[in-house]
């Protein structure tokens, strides 16, 4: 299995006992070092972690039977998975959905809707086995509750303009905050 954008290796480490071999790839060397420490501490010998850019480097040298991506998804990742996998092999991912934080009025550039994901997968040589949206919509009784729910995102959202849009949404009577993920399993055609 190839874990594209592994970060600190959470998915790779969790799936390692179920796989013959796992390779986690991420461009953040500090996160890769942390993943290596965790693998060593867990005594996992079938996992290795590599510093690399999953949107630039090809996956074929890793010879994956499965490519997975958790909250690290892009057209480039799907294209590389499409080139590396053989017929019948699986590409599975969880991506931000276009409804993620829709109250901010600004979808993530990494978000996918159902139709866009299906088109991308078809273009890259996959057929969809499973596609669903997992949504969690928090509702608030007051502006203060809505602000408190997003306080951990405030600094990040101020940088990209989302914070002010979310505050306006709350001031105009909105009382929700949506978290939404697209969960997909596709097979190479």
Based on the model shown, name its key terms.
189 residues; Rossmann fold; globular; alpha/beta
List the SSEs and their pairings.
Layout: E1 2-4, H1 10-15, E2 22-26, H2 29-41, E3 47-51, E4 66-70, H3 75-84, E5 90-96, H4 114-123, E6 126-139, H5 143-149, H6 154-160, H7 162-171, E7 176-188
Parallel strand pairs: 1-2, 1-4, 2-3, 4-5
Antiparallel strand pairs: 5-7, 6-7
Give the number of helices. 7
DSSP strand content? 25-35%
Biggest sheet overview? 7 strands, mixed
SSE order: EHEHEEHEHEHHHE
Query: What is the CATH third-level topology name?
Result: Rossmann fold
Distance between the termini: 18 Å
- Strand order, sheet with most strands: 3-2-1-4-5-7-6
Q: What is the strand tally?
A: 7
Supply the CATH architecture.
Answer: 3-Layer(aba) Sandwich
For the residues shown, what is the average pLDDT? 96
CATH class: Alpha Beta
Question: Summed up, what is this model?
Answer:
With 189 residues, the protein is an alpha/beta fold. Helices cover 33% and strands 28% of the residues.
Commentary on this structure:
The protein has a seven-stranded mixed sheet with strand order 3-2-1-4-5-7-6, sandwiched between helices. The mean pLDDT is 96. The chain has seven helices and seven strands, in the order βαβαββαβαβαααβ. Helix 1 (10-15) links the parallel strand 1 and strand 2 (22-26). By secondary structure, the chain is of the alpha/beta class. The chain is globular. The protein has a single domain (2-136, 180-188), classed as Vaccinia Virus protein VP39 (Rossmann fold), CATH 3.40.50.
């Amino acid at each position: 299995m190839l874990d594209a954008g592994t970060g600190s290796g959470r998915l790779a480490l969790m799936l390692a006992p179920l796989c013959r071999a796992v390779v986690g790839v991420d461009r953040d060397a500090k996160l890769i070092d942390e993943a290596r420490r965790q693998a060593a501490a867990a005594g996992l010998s079938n996992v290795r972690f590599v510093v690399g850019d999953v949107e630039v480097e090809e996956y074929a040298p890793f010879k994956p039977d499965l490519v997975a991506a958790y909250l690290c998804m892009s057209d480039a990742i799907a294209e590389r998975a499409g080139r590396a996998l053989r017929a019948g092999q699986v590409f599975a991912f969880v991506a931000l959905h276009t409804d993620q934080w829709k109250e901010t009025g600004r979808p993530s550039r990494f978000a996918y809707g159902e139709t866009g994901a299906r088109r991308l997968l078809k273009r890259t040589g996959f057929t969809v086995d499973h596609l669903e949206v997992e949504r969690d919509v928090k509702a608030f009784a007051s502006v203060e509750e809505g602000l408190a729910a997003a306080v951990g995102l405030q600094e990040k959202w101020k940088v990209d303009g989302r914070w002010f849009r979310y505050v306006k949404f709350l001031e105009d009577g909105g009382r929700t905050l949506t978290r939404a993920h697209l969960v997909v399993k596709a097979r190479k055609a």
